[in-house]
Amino acid sequence: MKKLFLPTLTFLFLNHCFAQQQFQLAPPVLQYHAAFFTGYATVTLKFAQPGTHIFYTLNNTEPTQKDVVYTKPVVINKSLTTFQAKVFGAGFLPSEKVQVTFIKDGLKIRSIEQPAANEKFAGNGPATLFDNEGGIADMHLKNFLGYLQDSVAVQVTLEKKHKVQSILLDFLQNESSWIFLPQSIRVYYYNANRNAYERIGEKTIASDSVMKGSAMVFEMVKFTKNVFADQFKIIIEPLQSIPEGHPGKGKQAWLFIDEIKIY
Amino acid sequence: MQRRNFIKNTSLTMAALMIQPSITFEQDTILGQGSKRYKINTHWSQADVARYPVNDCHEMIQDGKGRILLLTNETHNNVLIYDKKGKILDTWGHEYPGAHGLTLFDENGTEVLFICDNSRHQVIKTTIDGRVLMVLDYPKETGQYTKPEEYIPTETAITPGGDIYVADGYGKDFIIHYDASGRYLGYFGGRGNEEKHLLNAHGVCLDFRDKGQPNLIVTSRQQNAFKRYTLEGEYINTISLPGAWVCRPVIKGDYLYSAVLQTNSRQGEHSGFVTILDKNYKVVSNLAGSEPNYVDGKLDDMYQTVKCFSYPHDVCVDDEENLYIAQWNSGKVYPYKLSPVI
Predict the structure, then answer these.
(1) Is B46 touching A (CB cutoff 8 A)?
(2) pTM for this structure?
């Protein structure tokens, strides 16, 4: 017993004196004008805590201390580049990562017609969905159209006919504010030969009730074949029933969309 | 290996394993910048959670005996009284479900408390051990209120003569002025588009650092600012604190301390820290927050850098310059103590 006494006492002493938890660094402050760009985009990070460094990647991997140290704003010119950053510092646990995917402008859009959004989230004028603004996960920004309805039918008209292979839609996901990704997206193109809209792509999205925080998520709908067209109809079906485990279980979810791109 | 030795060795190994994390973490975490740096102790409170539960820990003060008083909206014990080492000395109070603001006042040599109760829509003056001395109901004399529910007081400030200023920080953001007996004298502030108006007037304090011109400092939390007024309620100026949801201003010596509930860049994400301003209202240190940076006299956005606080709600500075940080909605944690690093 005597032999156990000393280690136990030492443990209690050390525990009492030094059992301070090790703290995690907060994520760096990520700033960019918009996630959408024509020529290039610039991303800036801020983290004024001496003794720490921000590391970043552009290749879809979680930053480590072997990656590039952030020293000045980073220029992005390749579409669908995901910028990820994380702070490290001696004596602290590394931060969670911040990330943003930059999306290059697609084919020139002449107009997008959509149903009137909820008056509280009515967007920023008729060009809201193709103004290259937004891609920032803050539901209060004017870049979003917010809907609480069964389906949202959007009509997109290009400046001129093009060979088209896919459509990208950018959504906000913020489960704690009952904003979920849509459950399905269906795309139709106008077939002039037949004078009719024909289905050319669709996507279904599964939702869960896990709170992931506020984030931008883009959904790419790849067409079953390339089409030569200038008019498209997109039917977006917001999540009709919030999943089990969420306070809004069974209720209709909000849909927040801020941009559409045609490639 | 004999069984006895095995047990002995295992025990020693286990003890060593248990010690290991402590040794790894023995380096203290130092928060803040410049001459205002502190060592954090999250285990200051020795309160037994089964006997002395807390809910939101809203505000703290130190009384003349050196004791630390904590106000919580847990009606099992609304007031916990600690010594500076974190030992519970006493508790009282079961009738303050919305306990929020706690102010100490030395009334001719006798210390009294002013409690703002969000749920009761009242300000209650008590003795230091909880006997009720006066209750101020909703200020219908202002002509701005039609029912008690519109009035959700968050803080009081008391002048040396006993005048009471109440901040209706979760109600209509007016500052209501009474004399020492509770007689209504006037109001100012409220919401609007002018500089003199307030949005979430969460705290109020008296600033006597400029001897010639004492003034009131009022929080306008959603505007990320403090606003200064004369004791008559005339607007003086705004101290802008970009990004910071400041709670009440607390003045000790030359410095102003304030808990920052959260920051704009990460709202709803436990992004709080503590800010310290000098007597010229310049931020000199952010504890668990970004190093303050002024460009052409303008303060850069501030934000959390170390996740050691969730939603800090008040700072109490004791007679030895230690800080005690009370937190709102932070998993019912007891206050943390921060000791200055010299």
Answers:
(1) no
(2) 0.87
